[in-house]
């Protein structure tokens, strides 16, 4: 019997929103894990924060913890610590983890908590109808900064690398297959896994064409276990080219093993 | 001054009070605990408080211990003995000395206090420590010997006691210091009291403080994990549990901030662990949004909040009862909660166990409200740790039916399941939700879920019969009533011995839900009601008026960050009698 991971809740993302592609990628990842016997469905817990991305927990018939805005990460660490058998993933947003509650994701990376974070990065507060987040480009005009954002954007992958995350990847939501594969790699990784998913907001900051032109996939020449190479990739100027794929992966004892 | 050695019926109570004062880093706190343990081993009952500024070195610290053959509920300000490790200590306490008080002073500082004209007993604590190559932080141990000498305790017995008291810090060196202090007094031919050690004292209790008793209460109720971020006066619970974590398997975590503390704890509880967190009022202020999340998501959690003097950073290491109304209204939105305020070390144990159990029984946040004076003061107690055990609440998940986390039930409590169970999906959320745990906005569903949550209060109202929501002491027939809560209990019970007229003492422990019928029954018909609280705005009196319509006009309020002391409090209450 095929797994039915849908719920009765009506999907309220804008028609065509790449969040739906992320939802499909995750459902496929879970289906493949469960059918292969790699994971048991009842051991999967999906966290979510608050923002457009956070609705995903309502659309998934799996254990879920829909937290407050910016506060999901420590809850997930708690869940994993309480029951290490659980496969804990968390959906978050750029506003949800890099504006509010920024310290939680950095500390979880630092302590190498064995959870996977999927960051829906649309570079805008969309649910509140369009304001700059910590990842919006400088000059971004939103409701709270009509003259344009005065701040340089945070580069999530670079921050995660600096904080000691042991798995860092970037993917593009419209490539469902690649996103699914990277999600699976992240979930199989033992330690803190961070996946930045470029998720253009079709209503408030439509970057679909921008990224389509610039995204490219890292090949075997990129040594993902090499920290210097990873820094080089993470530091690349995304105005030019946007590297996607697994940027860094290493092995360290996890928070849950050490507590 | 009223004689605190006699109560209203003239019984001799013989409460003695000793203070040890010095600079931070002089080991004053440790000395205070050691003296408390010494007296407890001798068969006395003790109560010790610790006064210290928020710094690491210097300043003025003191430990004050009152002891008696009967239970002592609070330490007295008036001193029978002062052990001054520095000169400042004599200056600070000179006006609190009883007639004939023994004042032991570090010999090196005698010239600095010559102007005070106080008869003192010079004690070369520094020199003795140097002679024995002992660290100066241990030098009060020689005072332990000197004071033991004046009490007339035979040297062998004192050494045996010291051996026991200092066992966990290396008794050999400390016993040598004790012996030297004793020998010094003997050499000076100081008069000795007739040895009057209580002989028939039954069980020798332990000397413990509120914070450790709270930790033990949580443990008795089946605690599996504890999360905290250090903040006075809650830190010692975290450290006590952290120390035992390796041996017991208890998970103890100190994450990046208080917001992470409560969110992490809710994650653990969601996954099935019995968790408590601890913080001070300032840290709890940071937890507000997550406290509200605990309410809406119905994730069981016990929370120790220990108050210090606010607002903001306030008087960081001093006491206050200024946050009762804050805790009662904490978190945005409306949701049922439990708030219990223990008044002494034994109640700390019991209330913490009850809070964790009731948090699970009703799937609500449960707060144990303490303060610096309760959390960090030591008392000789015999905790009945067997009296409390875990209550796991409604856990049975109906077999063969589709599990929903927020099943609408008559008693408001939904069967609790955890992720990791086959064919069960457990969905929790910060949004208002349907039975499945999915966000909803329809008027009917929103109201139905609010009603479900608030129905849990009916169960708690039934529980009033089984828990000490209100306690009474003293002259229960009297139409003079003193009403109070939390750590002021100790001073009120001691002050009662010095009141002009007999009085009934009413302690309120359960703040939310509030046992209004019981409180009304205790207060109705009173000729005089006096409210005693360590805050500016009489927050308990406000609560009583809100819940019972009884307005209390006579208030003794203290908001100078110092705890009440018995004699001073009695004088204040007597003004209304």
Explain what you see:
The complex is a heterodimer of chains A (259) and B (577). Chain A is built from 9 helices and 8 strands. Chain A is of the alpha/beta class and 259 residues long. Chain A has one domain (19-252): Thiamin diphosphate (ThDP)-binding fold, Pyr/PP domains (Rossmann fold, 3-Layer(aba) Sandwich). In chain B, helix 14 links the parallel strand 12 (338-340) and strand 13. In chain B, helix 8 crosses helix 9, helix 8 (210-220) runs parallel beside helix 14 and helix 10 (258-270) packs parallel to helix 12. The model of chain B is unreliable at 1-12 (pLDDT under 50). Chain A binds chain B through residues 7-9, 40, 42-43, 45, 50, 55, 57-58, 61-68, 71-83, 85-86, 101, 103-104, 107, 259, and chain B through 225, 227, 251-253, 255-257, 259-261, 263-273, 275, 289-290, 293, 418-431, 436-439.
CATH class of chain A: Alpha Beta
Give Rg of chain A in angstroms.
17 Å
- The CATH superfamily of chain A bears the name Thiamin diphosphate (ThDP)-binding fold, Pyr/PP domains
| Unreliable sequence segments of chain B | 1-12
Number of helices of chain A: 9
The major sheet of chain A is characterized as: 8 strands, mixed
The top level CATH class name of the largest domain in chain B: Alpha Beta
Query: Quick check: average pLDDT of chain A?
Result: 97
Q: Judging by the overall fold, what is the CATH architecture of the largest domain in chain B?
A: 3-Layer(aba) Sandwich
Structural class of chain B: alpha/beta
**Average pLDDT over all residues of chain B:** 93
- Helix content, binned percent of chain B: 25-40%
Query: What is the share of helical residues of chain A?
Result: 25-40%
Alpha-carbon Rg of chain B, integer: 26 Å
Task: Please report the distance between the alpha carbons of the first and last residues of chain B.
Answer: 17 Å
Strand arrangement within the widest β-sheet of chain B reads 6-5-4-1-3-2-14-7
Please report the total strand number of chain A as a whole number.
8
Spans of chain A with pLDDT under 50 lasting ≥5 residues?
A: none
Number of domains of chain A: 1
Identify the most extensive interface between protein chains: A-B, 39 and 44 residues
């Amino acid at each position: 019997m095929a797994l039915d991971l849908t719920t009765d809740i009506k999907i309220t993302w804008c028609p065509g929103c790449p969040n739906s592609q992320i939802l499909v990628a995750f459902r496929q990842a879970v289906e493949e894990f469960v059918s292969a016997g790699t994971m048991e469905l009842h051991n999967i817990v999906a966290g979510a924060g608050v923002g457009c991305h956070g609705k995903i927990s309502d659309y998934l018939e799996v254990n879920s913890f829909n937290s407050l805005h910016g506060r999901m990460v420590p809850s997930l660490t708690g869940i994993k610590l309480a029951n290490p058998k659980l496969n804990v993933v968390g959906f978050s947003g750029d506003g949800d983890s890099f504006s509010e509650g920024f310290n939680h994701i950095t500390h979880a990376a630092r302590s190498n908590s064995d959870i996977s974070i999927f960051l829906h990065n649309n570079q805008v507060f969309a649910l509140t109808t369009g304001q700059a987040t910590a990842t919006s480009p400088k000059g971004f005009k939103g409701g709270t900064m009509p003259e344009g954002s005065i701040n340089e954007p945070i580069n999530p992958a670079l921050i995660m690398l600096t904080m000691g995350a042991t798995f860092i990847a970037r993917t593009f939501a419209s490539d469902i297959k690649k996103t699914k594969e990277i999600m699976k790699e992240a979930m199989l990784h033992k330690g803190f896994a961070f996946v930045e998913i470029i998720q253009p907001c079709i209503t408030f900051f439509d970057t679909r064409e921008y990224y389509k032109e610039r995204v490219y996939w890292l090949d075997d020449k990129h040594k993902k276990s090499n920290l210097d190479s990873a820094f080089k990739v993470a530091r690349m100027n995304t105005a030019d080219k946007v590297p996607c794929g697994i940027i860094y992966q290493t092995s360290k004892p996890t928070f849950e093993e050490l507590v | 001054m009223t004689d605190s050695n006699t109560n209203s019926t003239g019984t001799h109570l013989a409460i003695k009070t000793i203070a040890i004062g010095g600079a931070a880093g002089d080991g004053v706190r440790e000395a205070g605990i050691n003296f408390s343990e010494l007296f407890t081993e001798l068969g006395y009952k003790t109560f010790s408080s610790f006064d210290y500024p928020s710094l690491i070195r210097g300043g003025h610290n003191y430990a004050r211990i009152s002891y008696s053959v009967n239970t002592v509920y609070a330490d007295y300000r008036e001193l029978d003995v002062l052990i001054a490790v520095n000169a400042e200590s004599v200056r600070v306490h000179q006006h609190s000395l009883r007639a004939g008080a023994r004042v032991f002073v570090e010999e090196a500082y005698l010239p600095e206090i010559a102007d005070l004209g106080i008869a003192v007993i010079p004690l070369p604590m520094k020199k003795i420590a140097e002679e024995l190559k002992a660290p100066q932080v241990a030098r009060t141990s020689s005072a332990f010997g000197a004071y033991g000498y004046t009490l007339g305790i035979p040297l062998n017995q004192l050494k045996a006691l010291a051996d026991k008291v200092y066992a966990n810090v290396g008794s050999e060196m400390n016993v040598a210091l004790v012996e030297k202090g004793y020998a010094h007094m003997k050499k000076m031919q100081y008069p000795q009291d007739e040895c009057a050690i209580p002989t028939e004292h039954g069980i020798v209790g332990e000397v413990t403080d509120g914070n450790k008793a709270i930790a033990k209460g949580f443990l008795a109720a089946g605690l599996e994990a504890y999360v905290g971020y250090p903040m006075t006066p809650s830190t010692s619970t975290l450290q006590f549990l952290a120390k035992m974590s390796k041996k017991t398997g208890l998970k103890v975590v100190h994450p990046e901030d208080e917001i992470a503390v409560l969110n992490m704890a809710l994650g653990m509880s969601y996954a099935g662990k019995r968790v408590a967190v601890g913080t001070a009022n300032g840290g709890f202020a940071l937890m507000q949004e997550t406290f509200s999340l605990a309410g809406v998501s119905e994730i069981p959690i016990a929370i120790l909040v220990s108050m210090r003097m606010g607002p903001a950073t306030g008087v960081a290491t001093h006491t206050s009862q200024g946050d009762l109304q804050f805790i009662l209204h904490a978190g945005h939105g409306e949701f049922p909660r439990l708030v219990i305020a223990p008044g002494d070390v034994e109640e700390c144990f019991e209330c913490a166990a009850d809070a964790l159990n009731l948090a699970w029984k009703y799937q609500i946040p449960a707060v144990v409200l303490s303060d610096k004076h309760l959390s960090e003061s030591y008392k000789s107690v015999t905790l009945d740790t067997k009296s409390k055990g875990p209550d796991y609440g409604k856990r049975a998940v109906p077999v063969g039916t589709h599990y929903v986390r927020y099943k609408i039930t008559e008693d408001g409590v939904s069967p609790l399941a955890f992720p990791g169970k086959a064919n069960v999906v457990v969905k929790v959320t910060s949004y208002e939700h349907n039975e499945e745990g999915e966000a909803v906005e329809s008027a009917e569903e929103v109201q139905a879920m609010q009603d479900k949550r608030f129905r849990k209060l009916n169960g708690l109202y039934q529980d009033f019969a089984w828990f000490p929501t209100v306690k009474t002491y003293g002259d229960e027939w009297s139409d003079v009533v003193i009403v109070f809560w939390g750590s002021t209990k100790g001073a009120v019970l001691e002050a009662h011995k010095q009141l002009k007229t007999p009085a009934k003492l009413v302690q309120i422990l359960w703040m939310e839900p509030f046992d209004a019928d019981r409180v009304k029954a205790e207060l109705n018909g009173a000729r005089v009601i006096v409210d005693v609280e360590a805050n500016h705005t009489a927050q308990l009196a406000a609560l009583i008026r809100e819940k019972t319509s009884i307005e209390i006009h006579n208030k003794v309020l203290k908001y100078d960050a110092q705890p009440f002391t018995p004699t001073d409090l009695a004088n204040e209450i007597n003004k209304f009698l």
